[in-house]
Give the backbone structure.
Amino acid sequence: MGGFNVKTKTIKIFHTSDTHGNITNQSFINKSISQFSLSKVASYIRKNTDNNTLIIDTGDTIQGSPLTYYLKDNYSKYNNPISNIFNYIGYDYFIPGNHDFNYGLDYLQNFTNNLNATTLSCNILTKNDDSFFNKKYDIKIINDIKIAIVGATTDYINKWENPKNINGLNISDTYIAIKKSVQEIKELHKPDLIILAYHGGIESDFSTNIYTDKNVGENIGYKIFTEVKDIDIILAGHQHRLINYKHNNRVLVMPGSKGQILSEIIVSFDDEGKKITSQLINVDNESHDQKIIEKNSLIIKDSEVFFDQIIGYNKRNDLLITNQLDARLNKHKIVTLINNIQLKTTNADISATSLANNAFGFNKEITIKDVLNTYVYPNTLVVVEINGITLKNVLEQYATFFIINNDLITINEKYIKPKLELYNYVMFEGISYVINVSKPLGKKVSNLRFGENTIKDKDVFKLVINNYRASGAGNENIYEHLKVIEEYPLDISELLIDNIKANKNIDVTSTNNITIEK
C-alpha cells in the first residue's frame, strides 16, 4: 500500500441485496403504497452518488413477489423492467442469488443480458470452468484507486434448484473459488482494495465464534471473513439480516431485504493507507422515484388486472391469517387446504407443508394475489418414502418450534433470531399426533397415528413435501437421504390456483390432527 498523494482520495460503495422484485410503490399485497422498494433506494442513491461511486447488488432480485410471478411469463412484453431500473439507478455489478435461478436460465439471462452492469460469479461456471456470466471478478480504477470486485453465490444452489434450471452449469465450491480468485487477483493485479460481493450469509456469531446456523456450508461469510483476510469488504446477502460488522479496518455488511435498507461504505486513502467505514441506511423516509413509477405504470396496471382475478370464493370467510403464532399453534385451515391438494395431486399417504413468514391467507373473494401472498415460493412436489421411526424423528425436530414462556406456549427464539424462519415449522396431514412442548427432545411427540393405527418404527409411507425440503434445505437434512418415489414439476402456487378455479367454492374443514400441549 502507499504511493497516494497526501490529499485524501475516497470511493463510495452502495450495496443492495434480496430485493425480490420490490421495484415500485406498489405493495402487491393490497392497494396500499409500499413502504420500501428499489424506487426508494433509487431516490437516495441518485442524490448521493458521484463519479467515485460503485453500486453493487448481491442477488435474489428477479423472484419473490407477485410481480415477478407475473413477469416470468411476460418479461419480453415490457423489455424487462427490473433490468431497466438497475440501469436507471446505475448499478455497476450484479451477483446472481439462488432464487434468481427459480424461473429458469432464459429468464435470468434476459435480465443479465439487458443490464449495463457486469454480472460476476467466480463459482457459477460453464463445464469448461469459465464464468457462466460476464466474469469471475473485475478490476476497476476509481479516483486512481485499483479495486478488485469478486462475485460469488452459495453453492447450495446444487441442492435446492430444479436440475433443469441449472442444466449445463458447474456450480463449484464457493469457498475454494473465492480463495482461488483472491490469490489470482493479488498475484496478477496487486489491487489497493478487494471487495467480495457474496450471495450468502453468516454462519457464526462474530463475538462468540459460535455457530448460529447448522454447519452445513450454505452460509460461509464468517469463515471467509476470518480466513481470507486479504478481502477488505464483504457485501453479503441471502439471510435477509441487518449486519454491519467492523474489525481491523475490514467490514462485512448485509442490508436486509426488499429495498428497505441500503449498505453504504466509504473508503478513504492517503499516504498512511486506507480507512473503511460503513453504515446501513434506512430509506423509509425517501420518496419513491417518480421516473421509476412512470416508466413501469403499464406493467403495474396489467399485473394488477392479472392479480385481481377472482378465482374462487371462501364462503365462510375464515381463511385470512391474522396471527402467525396462532396459525401454527392451531394449524390454520390454509395448511389443511394446501396439504389436501398435495395429497390429491400425488396420491401420497401423508403430506407436509409450512407457511411463509408473513403468509396472508385468502379473502372471501379469493384472487390470484391472495394465493401468491400466501404461498410465496416457486416450489414443486416430491414424494419420498419414509418409515415410522424417521417420521417420528422429523416430528421431534419440528416440535422444538414451540417453548414454554411465562406458562404460555410461544415460538422458540431460534426460529426468530438471527433470521426469521417461521417457514421452518412444518405441519402434516394424513397422520395425527400430540406435541408435548415441555418434554425433552426425543419425547416431545406422542400418540402418532395413521388413521386408527399407531405408527410402528418399520411402517412405510409415501410422504409428499416440496423440492426445497426434499433437497435438505432450510437448515435441515432430515429428508435428503430418503428414497425419492416421484417428482412432480408443478409449481405449488399454480396447483393452488388451478384447484381453486376448478372448485370455485372453497370450504375447508379443520382436521384437528395436531394437538399441542404444555
